[in-house]
Amino acid sequence: MLLWQLACVTVIVAICTGVFVSIGVQQLRAEAETSALSIARTVAADSDVRADVARASADTGTPTNASLRGGPLSVLAAAAEANTGALFIVITDDHGIRLAHPDPQLLGAEVSTSFAEALAGRETVSWEAGTLGESARAKVPVRDPDTDEPTGEVSVGFAPSSVFKELPLLLGGVALAAVVALALGAVVSFVLRRRLEHLTLGLQPEEMSALVQNQAAVLDGVGDGVLAWGPDDVVTVANTTAARLLGIPDLVGRRIHDLALPGPVIAALAGERRLSATGGRGPDAAEPVVLADHVVYIDTHPVSHANRDLGLIAVIRDRTDVVTLTDRLETVASMTDALRVQRHEFANRLHVTAGLMDAGRVPDARDYLDDVLEASRTAGGPSTGEHLTEPFLVSLLEAKAAQAGERGVHLTVGADSLVRGVVSLPEDVATVLANLVDNAVSAAVYGQQPRWVDVELLDDADTLVMTVSDSGQGVANGARVFSDVPRTDLDPDAVHGRGIGLPLVRDIAARLGGEVWLADAGGRDGSGAVFCARLPGVMRAPTRPRQGED
């Protein structure tokens, strides 16, 4: 990289040097030509020169060399040469005969270069080679003082050595400037290279190209959302999955705190920075949050290189399907436990019946079976109430009642419960109701006798309202019951009790347009807490059976 920069600087300096030298040479040539023209004009305008040239041109004969030596024109031309430093000053008549020349031997002879332009009244400037060698010369017509017609010419020339005598100084200045520019370019190139290495963490351009390609392939290939931002909280990297989960199409270039995201999401994204700033350690597992219709886990990790803070990177994992499947599996597990309890109870009843029959007490056995049959004909079962007949809710509460019974808690459905519709969103209803019931059962276990949990369910059109109360010790801090503070009172080896909890229940209800709230914190006179939930859009009207169907 540095060699390429130095090569570019060298080429640029060489080109600039050549241009400057060329301009300097042209300027010296132009100055010589201008000086020659000025001197020729001055000499041609002299009255004595005009008169002498006019007389020589009017003479029909050709002047001899001897008559011209030491003449007034030769004296005048020699004096002008000495004063101006010109190579030569030549004066001719209208036939090109030299009337004045630096070489006396050439006086009276015709000049070696063309004089037609001067006799036509035109001034010329050019570089020509004559008897005295190559020179920058100017030719100016000498006009008759009476008629103003051209009667001869004045030719003034400067030798190349005198024209370019300042060229070494010019070349030295240009060379010095080129060396300084080259040195400055080398220093700047080195500084820029160090700066670029600092900004790119030492990566070369080809490595950066490969890194960008690999980054694009990885970001578009993973199924999780990836979001990265620098120490200034400005997003620098975001893949399409992150934009889809967050619901914001343009993330790059925006500040994290300026994004229109829920508070728990912003807190989850900024949580690792707060911990790293205080020297703490983050949680072992991310807490779930709700984003629109998605349940996501957000893991944030600080990124550094060579003890330099580069910002944070967040991995956003969509676990909506996993949470839904988990809820279904928990419901199936609850049903399985309920069936296991019922099987055990059914086996006990068979043992009682068989014992009565073995003892010959057939009437007593018959009465016992009638009682069991009458109890099974109750509309909603023994623990779900008379008016709760919705199959999904009955099954779920029967299973929860069986689980609560194993923990010594009696779960009942309030007599005022009335559900006439059918559950249309079983996953959301199971998540909210099962979490509230599980929390109530756990609270009742640590309460005083008798231990109970009471559930009341009411529906109004498509809205389901539920109330769950318990006999526990109440909620110590009602203001933080829905906060995202991780639980620390659980057995590390426990399998159950680590669900998504009240924060997610609240978010799910809010997503449906409803709410979950603490109606009574309890803790007074042995009364437990009372939680309420309102879930719009989770119920639908029952399908009426067609004629002839039961």
TrEMBL record:
Keyword terms, alphabetized: ATP-binding, Cell membrane, Kinase, Membrane, Nucleotide-binding, Phosphoprotein, Transferase, Transmembrane, Transmembrane helix, Two-component regulatory system
Recorded GO molecular functions are: ATP binding; phosphorelay sensor kinase activity
Subcellular location, principal: membrane
Residues covered by the Histidine kinase domain: 366-539
UniProt catalytic activity: ATP + protein L-histidine = ADP + protein N-phospho-L-histidine
Per UniProt, the enzyme's principal EC class comes to transferase
* Membrane topology reported for the UniProt record: Multi-pass membrane protein
Gene Ontology terms: cellular component: plasma membrane
Transmembrane region(s): 169-192
Q: Known Pfam families for this protein?
A: HATPase_c, PAS_4, sCache_3_2, SPOB_a
Q: Which PROSITE patterns does the record cross-reference, listed alphabetically?
A: HIS_KIN
- SUPFAM superfamilies linked to this entry: ATPase domain of HSP90 chaperone/DNA topoisomerase II/histidine kinase (SSF55874), PYP-like sensor domain (PAS domain) (SSF55785), Sensory domain-like (SSF103190), Sporulation response regulatory protein Spo0B (SSF55890)
Q: Which Gene3D superfamilies match?
A: 1.10.287.130, Histidine kinase-like ATPase, C-terminal domain, PAS domain
Subcellular location as annotated: Cell membrane
The enzyme's E.C. designation: 2.7.13.3
What is this protein's record name? Answer: histidine kinase
Its source organism is Cryobacterium zongtaii
